[in-house]
Design a protein that fits this description.
It comes from Mesobacterium hydrothermale. It is an enzyme of class 3 (hydrolase). This is (S)-2-haloacid dehalogenase. Its EC number is 3.8.1.2. By secondary structure, the protein is an alpha/beta fold. It folds into 2 domains: about 140 residues, 3-Layer(aba) Sandwich (Rossmann fold); about 70 residues, Putative phosphatase, domain 2 (DNA polymerase, domain 1, Orthogonal Bundle), CATH 1.10.150.240. The protein is built from 10 helices and 8 strands. A 6-stranded parallel sheet has the order 5-4-1-6-7-8, sandwiched between helices. It has a two-stranded antiparallel ribbon with strand order 2-3. Strand 6, helix 9 and strand 7 form a beta-alpha-beta unit.
Length: about 220
């Protein structure tokens, strides 16, 4: 029986692309805001991979985002204020997320299992009104998804066997890693996370325990 659901956040729960682009347009007028947001996000995995591979000790995502911001700003030929980094704390939720989480919370413990830091997830939750019961994820594991330690640390913090925890994500690779260490899995499609031309994660890549079009449908499947 599933007792807790843990969630990928960037892309699955919130629309990072439009939200970051909005902040970029305000801070850096004249820059192609969507291109800048995509480039900033493009530095996300390479920055974490250096840590996952052991080439660098754990660094919180807030700090990686700031390093990446200045790297991308230089590429675009502009100087970005450090305050722009707070854009990642003000991402808007997809329309189904808050009502879906509210329904799910009636029967399940809910928490993010994100690569974001505890403070980033906390501030984001306050902005987006995400009704988490607690904040889990990369910082308690001192590593980054899809390393198995991140999923297992979240289960351990809840004192639940992985089989009693379901990972919810719009990214197939996240679910592959979660299933490999015994968690249940739910795929929720976010076909425009990367914009109208998205080509990845449009369909489930495996027979996940649940496949749903949104969080409201997910809640209905779990009642």
């Amino acid at each position: 029986m599933t007792q807790a659901l843990i969630f990928d956040v960037f892309g699955t729960c919130v629309d990072w692309r439009s939200s970051v682009a909005r902040a970029v347009a305000q801070a850096l007028p004249g820059v192609d805001a969507l291109a800048f947001a995509d480039a900033w996000r493009g530095e996300y995995q390479p920055a974490m991979e250096r840590i996952r591979a052991g080439g660098r000790g754990y660094v919180a995502l807030d700090d990686l985002h700031l390093e990446n911001l200045h790297r991308v700003a230089e590429r675009f030929g502009v100087t970005a204020p450090d305050t722009l980094n707070a854009a990642w704390e003000r991402l808007d939720p997809w329309p189904d997320v808050v009502p879906g989480l509210t329904a799910l919370r009636q029967r399940h413990i809910l928490a993010p299992c994100s690569n974001g830091s505890i403070v980033l997830m906390t501030r984001l939750a306050r902005h987006a009104r995400l009704p988490w019961d607690c904040i889990l994820g990369a910082e308690i594991a001192r590593d980054y998804k899809p390393k198995p330690e991140v999923y297992l640390a979240s289960c351990a913090a809840l004192r639940l066997h992985p089989s009693a925890v379901m990972m919810v994500a719009a990214h197939n690779d996240d679910l592959v890693a979660a299933r490999a260490v015994g968690l249940r899995t739910a795929f929720v499609t976010r076909a425009t996370e990367h914009g109208p031309g998205q080509t990845t994660d449009l369909t489930p890549a495996d027979d996940w325990d649940i496949v749903a079009p949104d969080f409201i449908a997910l809640a209905q499947r779990l009642t």
